[in-house]
Specification:
Distance between the termini: 82 Å
Structural class: alpha/beta
CATH class of the largest domain: Alpha Beta
Shape: globular
Largest sheet: 6 strands, mixed
CATH architecture of the largest domain: 3-Layer(aba) Sandwich
Low-confidence stretches: 230-243
Number of strands: 13
Number of helices: 12
CATH topology of the largest domain: Rossmann fold
Strand order of the largest sheet: 10-9-8-11-13-12
Helix content: 25-40%
Strand content: 15-25%
CATH superfamily of the largest domain: P-loop containing nucleotide triphosphate hydrolases
Number of domains: 3
Mean pLDDT: 82
Radius of gyration: 24 Å
Oligomer: single chain
Length: about 350
């Protein structure tokens, strides 16, 4: 068992009664716990109240794993054994409180980004990167993971106060009840507000496209240039992205932050709950549709389409909802359904070729 003094120290790393109860229910109380703070090829770095260690998972875990989620991820709490003072063996990943998944470009399967996150900062730079639809994509993923979202508008030194005010008004009009922070690494505007937002023992993940300034912001929070950042591209005016892997950092105020590699676009998976939470206005309107299975695309008596026509629903928000809904439905298909569709397509091609042969003959 962990005594009260040790519990307080582990709490500073994000450990709480949720993980302690899971550890107890799994009968793993005789093993020490540590948190995964970075992930490398076939290796992990874990941290406990005594220090940091390189760690590997056991052969049994590799044998039992059937998907990416079965392996440790940054943010996980794991039970370990210590064969020596510098290395550890990960014996079990404790159940996760929250997870963050997304689909990367040109990859079919979803990727586990990080786990046990309390708050996800969605960062966009106000000069070129600003895009309401992209905010919506991240919000769907974050809501699906049951994580609190916060929007950070970065590089505010590049726009006027009037322009910044208009952007904030647009966000507030599109997304209700969401915290918005404005920052600039160059002028250090908003950095105190961001620092005060981050609480001791809580975990925060920084999300956003390449070059929006995630790593630069974390460096400011750390008070040193621990994360390498690229110079500004003259052609795009954006920072060249250099972060290649997720890593956890511990701030002087006790907050815990995770830097995450940026991507140009982010796809969503089978995030049905997250979609409904972000687009709750459309979900409420759909209750008044004539048909229970209304797709909100062409049906007569559709309350959602009527709201768009009467301008009671933002058209761009509606169009983005339809796009994201189609992506979600695609990932909800079971592997069997996907294989079935592939077989049907294969039969269609075969019949078409046979018809062509008849015509040629």
């Amino acid at each position: 068992m962990i005594d009260e003094a040790t519990k307080i120290k582990y709490k500073d790393l994000g450990y709480d009664e949720f993980f302690e109860s899971k550890r107890k229910s799994l009968g793993l109380m005789e093993y020490p716990v540590a948190r995964v703070i970075s992930e490398h090829r076939e290796l992990y770095k874990v941290k406990d109240i005594n220090g940091e260690y390189l760690a590997k998972i056991t052969g049994k875990q590799i044998f039992d794993a059937t998907k990416r989620e079965d392996y440790p991820a940054v943010g996980d709490w794991v039970v370990i054994t210590m064969p020596d003072k510098e290395t550890a063996s990960i014996r079990k990943v404790l159940p996760r409180k929250t997870t963050l998944n997304k689909k990367y470009d040109n990859k079919q399967d979803a990727q586990l980004i990080a786990t046990n996150i309390d708050v996800a900062f969605i960062i966009e730079s106000v000069d070129r990167d600003y895009n309401l639809n992209r905010f919506e994509r991240y919000l769907v993923l974050i809501n699906e993971g049951q994580i609190k979202p916060v929007i950070i508008l970065n590089k505010i030194d590049l726009v006027s106060k009037v322009e910044l005010g208009l952007i904030i008004d647009q966000i507030k009009n599109r997304f209700k009840d969401i915290d918005i922070l404005s920052t600039s690494v160059t002028t250090e505007q908003g950095l105190d507000e961001l620092t005060n937002y981050i609480k001791k023992g809580k975990t925060y993940c920084f999300l956003g496209s390449s070059g929006v300034g995630k790593s630069s912001l974390i460096n400011k929070l750390l008070g040193k240039s621990e994360i390498k950042t690229g110079e500004i591209s003259r052609s795009t005016g954006r920072g060249k992205h250099t972060t290649t892997s997720r890593e956890m950092y511990f701030l002087e105020n006790g907050g815990i932050v995770i830097d995450n590699p940026g991507t140009r676009e982010v796809g969503i998976t089978n995030a049905d709950t997250g979609l409904e939470n972000v687009f709750d206005e459309i979900v409420a309107l759909s209750e008044n549709c004539r048909y229970a299975d209304c797709t909100h695309t062409h049906e007569s008596g559709c309350a959602v389409l009527r709201a768009v026509d009467t301008k009671n629903l933002d058209k761009e928000k509606y169009l983005n909802y339809i796009r994201l809904k189609k992506e979600t439905e695609h990932y909800e298909m079971t592997d069997l359904e996907k294989r079935g569709k592939d077989r049907k397509f294969g039969k269609f091609i075969k019949r078409s070729l046979e018809q062509l042969k008849k015509i040629d003959s």
